[in-house]
Amino acid sequence: MADIADSPLANQANKSLEHENIETGEPKMRARDVDVYYGQKKAIDSVDIDVYTEFVTAFIGPSGCGKSTFLRALNRMNDTIPSARVTGTIELDGEDIYASGMDVVQLRARVGMVFQKPNPFPKSIYDNIAYGPKIHGLAETKPDLDNIVEKSLRRAGLWEEVKDRLADSGTALSGGQQQRLCIARAIAVDPEVILMDEPCSALDPIATAKIEELIDELRGRYGIVIVTHSMQQAARVSQRTAFFHLGNLVEYGHTSDIFTNPVEKRTQDYITGRYG
Amino acid sequence: MSASTLILLVLGLGLAGWLVARSRAAMFRRANGGKRIASLPNYHAWYAALWIVVPTLLFALVWSQIADNLVIQHVLASPAAADLPAFGMQRQTMLTEARAVATGAAPAVFNPAAADLVEPFEEALTRYNIIGMVVTLLIALAGGAWAFLHLKPDFRAHTRVERAVLSLLLIASLVAILTTLGIVASLVFETVRFFGMVNPIDFLTGVNWSPNPMTDGSNPDPERYGAVPLFWGTFFIGVVIAMIVAIPMGMMSAIYLNQYAAPRVRTWLKPALEILAGVPTVVYGYFAALTIAPAIRDIALALGVQNPSSESALAAGLVMGVMIIPFVSSMADDSIAAVPQAMKDGSLAMGATQNETIKRVLVPAALPGIVAGIMLAISRAIGETMIVVMAASATARLSANPLEAMTTVTYQIVANLTGEASMDSASTLAAFALGFVLFLVTLVLNIIALRIVKRFREAYE
Amino acid sequence: MSNVATSGSEKVRPTRTAAFEARLKKRYAAERRFKAVGLGAIVFSIAVLVFLLVTMALNGLGGFQRTELRVPVDFANAPVTIPANAEDERAVVQSLERQGMRDIIIFSAEQALGEEGATHVNSEAWRLVAQEIAADPSLARGQQEFWLPTDEDLASAYAGDGSADLQPLARRLAEEGHLSDNFDSGFLSRSDATDPQLVGIWGALKGSILTMIVTLLLAFPIGVLAALYLEEYAPKNRWTDLIEVSINNLAAVPSIIFGLLGLAVFLWIFPSYRSAPLIGGMTLALMTMPVIVIAGRNAIKAVPPSIRDGALAIGASPVQVVFHHVLPLALPGILTGTIIGMARALGETAPLLLIGMRAFVSSPPDGFTDNATVLPMQIFLWSDEIDRGFVERTSAAIIVLLIFLLLMNGLAIYLRNRFEKKW
Ligand SMILES: Nc1ncnc2c1ncn2[C@@H]1O[C@H](COP(=O)(O)OP(=O)(O)OP(=O)(O)O)[C@@H](O)[C@H]1O
Ligand SMILES: [Mg+2]
Questions:
Q1: B387 and B319 Cβ atoms separated by less than 8 Å
Q2: What pTM, to 2 d.p., does this model score?
């Protein structure tokens, strides 16, 4: 696993994957004809999308178009909103995640999430990372747990910064560190997909660069979906981009195509800054 | 002249001043050709009215205090008073009776000797009534005149009136400080007197509490004033037993209401808990004494306990705990509700179950608020009086057996202040010393708790 | 590159193992248990409340009744005259007493109930008859039937306890239709007495009403003005902090401390008004005022600044803004807080115990300075009586008190819902 540390930069990765066909291989997650309602209001209208482990998928679109709503449908975080309702099918490895046999707890352990605002628990750094493994019983012994914590922090690129103060409160870190802590927390349970909702919007450019680097390193091991408002960021980190508008999926394809040669006029207008 | 007629008179004068000043201001306006004057006529009116009412009311307040004494002095100076007994109940009743007849509150005196006093009373009452009335009128006139002389077209009456209103608001808020000062002063004053009779060390460390209001007088045996058993009883009933009931029940109720109950269920259950909080303590006390205490005694007997008390600490503590449940529950509810949703989402998104999220994230995050709530609950429990007065016992005992009778600080305050002892006896003053200890302990708990709550709120704002 | 992508997905993820799923079952069981405990806690609290209310209601319903004997009185045989010039009830009763009312009743009771039965007519029964006659003189003509209270012994015998000797008599009288439990409307109009058959709560209720009037008149204006000052005008300085700390602390100080204050200060200034509603009301006002201040501040805080700005912009002075715009909008919130504070004061006993409002008051107080007691105090005093009759009367008084509190709290909730505004 060590070789991912010196993986190529994002744009080079783009190039190497550019000509792969989007339909090759089995998608990790497959959404078909998904509608999401808040009460009577339809926030997502008939969306079809595939998420692959090999690529980072970016969701872009103007504010209020339903990116977060759709993202939360992917690990059933919408269940926590009483008025929200999802129809259509979303599959993870071919299993319908809204089927009655699907277990939400297990689903969320398999599909992790990182939020827009870093939300570390008011606990020590160590306990923040150990939280998932502990509740899911992933570590038998204390050394096992220590091991998971160290590995997760290393993967999130935070280990060097915090290894001497693991007992400090997670909330005492800087914003960028907190966000990486949240990513480390998510990967500590070794999920299959990680959903990120504008993970860099509260961060400065340096912290943002670190997270983008991290996303690139995690690609391949985890399916990654990232919501972003920054076109540049989408271009830098993702290989597939989905453009949402007013609850519709307008266009979905290779990131390079979307940005250089969009099919739809609305996509064109958005990426050239005509609205949004 | 009664207080109410005096007040009516003052208000009437004020109204007159109000009307006169208002028409005068309106006149300025007309003289000014209908143009605006510096302040609206109403402000001129209020300015004059305040100048009349405030000084006269102040005078009336003072007068009502001293007039009584002046009347009594006059009566005592009269020859009829020579036959009065020098002191004691008799003298007091005779004076009261004669006064009642003189003011027309009673048709005739019972005690014929008091009849002679009626006339001097009438005389004195009329004389001082007239004096009071005249001075009131003079003050009202002076105030009114002073105000009237100030009224000019360019007089800014409204700034004056607004300043008066602001001072009124300030005075109202100072009442809180005055009350606190009054509490501290009266408790300290009596406590110091008590510590003049009983050494504070004996009081705070002695283990034998058996004051005797009849014989202790002002020279008590300090050995009988050891308050440790009372502190222990208060702690055992109010902190140990009551909290064993209230904390888990209150916490779990709050968690259920806040995290599990459907909104519709919540709208019904919450008011039900509020009703539990609104039941007067005397009702809880009656319930404890009539229903719970005998039941506990019977159960203890059935379990083979020898001589269980029918005033057991357990009965009082359990009922007190039930009384505190809604209090703990509402504080915990508020604190848990104040934890940001993001925190909860973070945990749920990791695949934590609801109860794992609650136990490992929400409750720890809400802990400061919950701890503060428990401190306030303890402060309320140790100050609770009626339940212990009705269900606990008078016997001071140092014991950890909840089936035994125990007494508390509040019980002893009531017992020592409602007995026959005079205001100066050691047992009465001891009640104030106990009250002082109670006040200090609850004060510290309250201040710490309120500070924690404040910081907690700021942290999540 | 590609080995990274495959090696991760080939290994079985820890969240897909059988151990994980086995553990998941246990976690769900824990979840169900936890939820059940939560529900249990609520159910426990509600159950205690219901148990308490039901106990009081079952006991208390008997308290609204009293055991009475049916006694026909023939005034044709024992004529009485009602003095024509009598000014009030008392004079009529006195006159009837002089005319031998007591003997008339005893005689009639002996006729109807037999010697033994007649001894158990309440010794004050004649007075009740006299009072009825004073209210309606036509009763004093011809044959009339009265339901007269029994004495305590017969009442408890009829209830099935008390001395066994009397129970046959009670059974006999009941079978003859002379003895039964009747609704006692007088319970709501009489005052305290030593005999549970003759007590009523009007005296205590009136005392409560008078006391609450004093409390309201003092606490409401002071509380509202203080809230206005703190929320609208107070500068940020040490004094203001001190006022705030005082108020917050006073709201949490045990009520008995206010009793000590009342005893040491108010009774020292007005020694002759011991057990008067005036002093009780002043003491409770100090206790209620902080509640009103805190509720008032929250209500004032909820008035949006835009309303103040709007008024200031058209040239209103700060005082006008507050009294014309802010206060009316905050009033429903303030009233809700006031009612809740008043409800608390109405149920309060401990401080009044210390300032001596525990007098035995056999006639309702007429003014703010008369001797009086209050409803919760009456409950406390009766609860100390050993007599079985008082147990029921106490519960009945508790029911009355709870009804008042329920009405007040209901009104507060209604106000809160009715006027709750989202700005
Ligand atoms: N809890 C909710 N209840 C009702 N409506 C909601 C809720 N959350 C979001 N919405 C609505 O659903 C629509 C989509 O919202 P969503 O948060 O998914 O937008 P978004 O694309 O993530 O926007 P942004 O870029 O600002 O985060 C919006 O119109 C929003 O008002
Ligand atoms: Mg969003």
A1: yes
A2: 0.86
